[in-house]
Design goal:
mainly beta; Immunoglobulin-like; Jelly Rolls; 2 domains; five-stranded antiparallel β-sheet; four-stranded antiparallel β-sheet; 2 helices; about 35% strand; binds calcium ion
């Protein structure tokens, strides 16, 4: 018989009880898009150089507000040319990118619409997008080399719109859920213009293509998570701690709540994937002890992520030793 990974020692309140109707708190989630905080590394490709005088400031922060679908930004204070085959890694310090509802981040390039004869075309210099929690191991979003679906650098920017609204802002948006990844701190863009340039039958083919031009990468408002530094933070909703840690056999998560709340707990592996769902239930006010059994998980550093009432609240670092 399999042992349940989670059992609650404290009493559970039935979700249908009157206390379940307690008022919801207003969400503390951020309301504005946030750009990257730093460049982790940049490996220029062939023909790179544009924008180097203003690097790295030109790829941090928000996209060029003057960019339009038919008049792209060509301002070196806003745009960095990666060059053919170039690669850049951006880091997000103030906000982790977490898998919120829908798309989680948007990549802005300077793609634009133009007419060739009677045809409307997009001048696209595509980039492959990958994400990472630790800056070392990256997982790539798949893309189609003919339609460029799944690439960045395809949708023109509308700098007039709120960059936190992917429906209006343009740019290419990405959803961590597509990769089954919970949260990341790094976004890598690798120029793949070669797949278009080397294929004259591509609908995007143009002999002048010369590599991805990065304007900005922004974390969308509902996908901004707290940095891991908040694991010792003091929030009014309660407290959480893990003992023992490192975990060799099993461990107890001690959780105290100010009132009845829906509590969702997951263990996230070093790649940012959900390794185990430890629970998603309503818990009463007061103290709870939740058992964590790491059987079946490899050794490594995991994150125990706790969401209260659907909002990411606390992350604890758990070292699993098998
Ligand atoms: Ca920019
Ligand atoms: Ca998402
Ligand atoms: Ca471009």
């Amino acid at each position: 018989m399999r042992v349940h990974y989670l059992f609650l020692i404290a009493a559970l309140l039935a979700a249908s009880g009157p206390a379940a109707e307690a008022q919801q708190e207003s969400s503390p989630a951020a309301t504005a898009a946030a750009g990257a905080d730093a460049v982790e590394r940049f490996q220029p490709g062939q023909g790179a150089g544009f924008g180097m005088d203003y690097f790295p400031a030109n790829v941090l922060g928000l996209p060029d507000s003057t960019a339009r679908a038919d008049v792209p930004s060509v301002d070196p204070r806003q745009i960095l040319g990666l060059g053919l085959g170039g690669e850049i890694v951006l880091r997000f310090d103030r906000h982790m990118i977490v898998d919120g509802p829908g798309p989680d981040f948007t990549v802005f390039e300077n793609a634009f619409r133009y007419s060739a004869g009677s045809r409307n075309r997009v001048y696209a210099e595509p980039g492959q997008v990958a994400v990472s929690r630790d800056g070392v191991t990256f997982v790539s979003f798949p893309f189609d080399s003919l339609t460029l679906h799944g690439c960045a650098g395809v949708t023109p920017t509308n700098g007039e719109a709120d960059p936190g609204d992917p429906v209006l802002s343009g740019g290419d948006s990405f959803d961590l859920a597509q990769l089954g990844i919970d949260s990341v701190r790094y976004v890598r863009i690798r120029d793949v213009t070669g797949v278009v340039k080397g294929n004259p039958s591509s609908p995007f083919w143009d002999p002048t293509l010369n590599g991805f031009d990065l304007d900005a990468v922004v974390v969308l408002p509902r996908s901004q998570g707290s940095p891991l530094a908040v694991e010792t933070g003091n929030q009014a909703a309660g407290s959480a701690s893990l003992s023992p840690n490192p975990i060799a056999g099993s461990a107890m998560l001690s959780l105290t709540l100010d009132r009845e709340r829906r509590v969702a707990i997951r263990m996230i592996d070093p790649l940012g994937r959900t390794a185990r769902v430890l629970g998603d239930e309503r818990l009463a006010a007061g103290a709870h002890r939740i058992r964590i059994d790491p059987a079946g998980l490899g050794s490594g550093v995991y994150i125990v992520a706790i969401a209260l009432d659907g909002i990411q609240w606390r992350t604890l670092r758990a070292v699993v030793v098998q």
